[in-house]
Every structure is written in C-alpha cells, then in structure tokens.
C-alpha cells in the first residue's frame, strides 16, 4: 500500500520499553512488558493479538488514560518528540482530542445519550479552542457530512439512540477529526459492524489518512482487516510484541509460531480454502506466564531452548520476530 505525501516529519508516536502493571490478589501482574513500537507520519499501523494481550492498555497509555490501579513501571512515550510521561495532567487533557483522538470499540457507550449528535461532534472546538457554540454546531454538521451521513443537517439534531451502529461509529470518527489530530487511535472500531458497514468505515479512515496526513494506530484481532488496511503490523501476545514488520512480509512469511497460528485460524486471509486450525490452549494470565518464551506451552514448534528468554531474530529488512526458531521454513509454511 503506497503511503500518501507526508506532511509531518519524524515519528508521530514512539513507545519505548513500556511496562504497565497492576497489583492483584494473585500478586504483581505486568500486563504490558517491555513493549516498543512507532508510528510514522501518515502511517496506518496495526496491533493484533488475542483479547488480553495488552493492545488496548498500550493505546490507553499513549493517551494518558490508564484505568485505575494500572501504573507505568518503565518506558517512554513520545508524541511528536514530546514526552507524554513528563506532561502534567492538565497538559495531557489538552493533548487528548487536540493532538490525539480516540475511537473506541463501543461507540454507543461513548456518546452522551442526552446530547444531540451534532453538539457532541462539535464540542471539542468549544473545549479546546474556546469556539462559540453556534460555530461549533455548524462544524458538527460539516463533519457529519464529511463522514458521509446522508442528511447531516437533520441527523445533527438527533440523539445517539436514533443512529444505527455504523452511524454511531461514523459520528465518533467525526468527533475525533474535529481538531484534525496528528494521531487517531482506533480500538477495534469495526468489531460490532456487519461486513458492508465495516468496509465503509475502513474506507472512511483511509480517506482521513489521505486527506489530512493523519497517523493511525489501529487495534484489532481481525487479520483480514489488517491485511487489507495497514502498512505495518505488530503482533502482540501475553503483554509483549512477538513479531513486527510490513504487512505483506508478515502475511507472506510469518516467522513467529503465534503469528502462524493466527493466520491458520483466520478464514480466507490468503484466499485459501484450507480448514481452519485453532491455536490450542489459552493466553496465560499475567501472573502465570511460563519462563522463557511466553508462547511455549501452546507452541507446536517448541524445543528445549524455548524455556529460556528468546532472542530477537532479524528475518529481513524491518521484519523481526522474538523466537529462537524465527524464519525457519517450517513455521512460515
């Protein structure tokens, strides 16, 4: 997938060696463990993995919105070169919606049921730019038109419950675009949508990237969406990145057994008619991860060295995997 002209130099988001932990009745739980990732200007970067792998917590850390009880143990988060962790809470609040916008999985729960949709879409202008309400409401209508709602003047006056699921998701995208942020974080934004509406939402996000040069951090468990939509991808398992690289290389040559397992368990990612093969077992709790490779107890390719911490193996330019057997033909098959 060709990238559009890049209006912003350097990395929009850079996360380095990020670890996030909770204290639980079972003990210390490091739910995100030494994660590093980056998103360049105008890139769409996917993070994939099963539920519980740490994808959403990583994104929430980039927003400065970790849930109660979570704490960052170590690492750096840079937005346009500026350290998020060195900001005051007031500065982080100013950043959210202005420089970074978030599209959640459940749009209906995120929209205020008592406010008209147009008001909510234009509200960031009032909060962040002290724009008069009449101008913000007009902008709300314009944004609803930009996300291809059929009758934005009328629909701006409606309430969220009057919108379909796809319309609610479009309204959340419109709200996120209100201040033309550098970075759009989309957390499973198409999960609850049917295939037709999902395709429309993804096309809309492509348009946003093309027209505004916006960088997009796309969280999903749907490999089909990643294959069709993202430029690069990080594969996350049990709190850690286990493979990273350009989308075409990861799909053509998966080099971590977990990535291979995800591909074999996903319908028709390559147009194959082969039977689906589920990954046995389940993702371990953060307090019960095995020594060495955290995938070892579910891996059909495990050997004795897998009980020790695995190395990063460079497969080819910009493609690497956290596996002692990375790159072997048997795994990529």
Write down how many β-strands occur, each being a DSSP E stretch of 2 or more residues: 12
What proportion of the residues form beta strands (DSSP E)?
15-25%
Mean pLDDT: 89
Compute the separation of the termini in Å.
24 Å
CATH architecture of the largest domain: 3-Layer(aba) Sandwich
Q: What CATH first level of the largest domain would be assigned?
A: Alpha Beta
Helix content: 25-40%
Number of helices: 12
As for the number of domains, it is: 2
The arrangement of helices and strands along the chain is EEEHEEHEHHHHHEHEHEEHHEEH
Global outline: globular
Low-confidence stretches: 1-9
What would your notes on this structure say?
The protein is α/β, with parallel strands linked by helices and about 325 residues long. The protein has 2 domains: about 240 residues, Rossmann fold (3-Layer(aba) Sandwich), CATH 3.40.50.300; about 70 residues. About 30% of the residues lie in helices and about 25% in strands. The chain contains 12 helices and 12 strands. Strands 6-7-8-3-9-10-12-11 form an 8-stranded mixed beta sheet, with helices on both faces. The protein has a 4-stranded antiparallel beta sheet with strand order 2-1-4-5. α4 runs parallel beside α7 and α7 packs parallel to α8. The radius of gyration is 21 Å and the shape is globular. It starts with 10 loop residues before the first strand and ends with a helix. The N terminus is likely disordered.
């Amino acid at each position: 997938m060709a990238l559009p002209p890049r209006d912003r130099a350097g990395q929009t988001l850079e996360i380095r060696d990020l670890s996030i932990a909770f204290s639980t009745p079972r003990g210390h739980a490091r739910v995100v463990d030494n994660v590093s990732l980056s998103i360049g200007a105008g890139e769409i970067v996917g993070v994939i993995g099963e539920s519980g792998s740490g994808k959403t917590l990583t994104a929430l850390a980039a927003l400065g919105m970790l849930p109660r009880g979570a704490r960052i143990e170590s690492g750096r988060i840079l937005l346009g070169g500026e350290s998020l962790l060195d900001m005051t809470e007031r500065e982080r609040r100013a950043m959210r919606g202005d420089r970074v916008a978030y599209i959640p999985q459940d749009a209906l729960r995120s929209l205020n049921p008592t406010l008209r949709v147009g008001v909510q879409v234009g509200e960031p202008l009032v909060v962040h730019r002290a724009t008069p309400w009449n101008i913000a409401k007009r902008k709300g209508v314009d944004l609803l038109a930009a996300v291809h709602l059929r009758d934005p003047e009328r629909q701006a006056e409606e309430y969220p419950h009057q919108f379909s699921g796809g319309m609610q998701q479009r309204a959340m995208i419109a709200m996120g675009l209100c201040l033309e942020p550098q970075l759009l974080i989309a957390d499973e934004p198409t999960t609850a949508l049917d295939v037709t509406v999902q395709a429309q939402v993804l096309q809309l996000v492509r348009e946003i990237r093309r027209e505004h040069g916006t960088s997009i951090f796309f969280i999903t468990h749907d490999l089909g969406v990643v294959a069709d939509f993202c430029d690069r991808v990080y594969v996350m398992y049990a709190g850690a990145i286990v493979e990273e690289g350009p989308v075409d290389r990861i799909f053509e040559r998966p080099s971590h057994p977990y990535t291979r397992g995800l591909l074999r368990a996903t319908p028709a990612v390559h147009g194959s008619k082969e039977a689906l093969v589920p990954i046995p077992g389940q993702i371990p709790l953060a307090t019960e991860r095995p020594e060495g490779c955290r995938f070892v107890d579910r891996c059909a390719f495990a050997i004795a060295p897998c009980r020790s911490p695995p190395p990063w193996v460079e497969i080819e330019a910009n493609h690497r995997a956290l596996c002692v057997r990375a790159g072997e033909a048997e795994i990529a098959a």
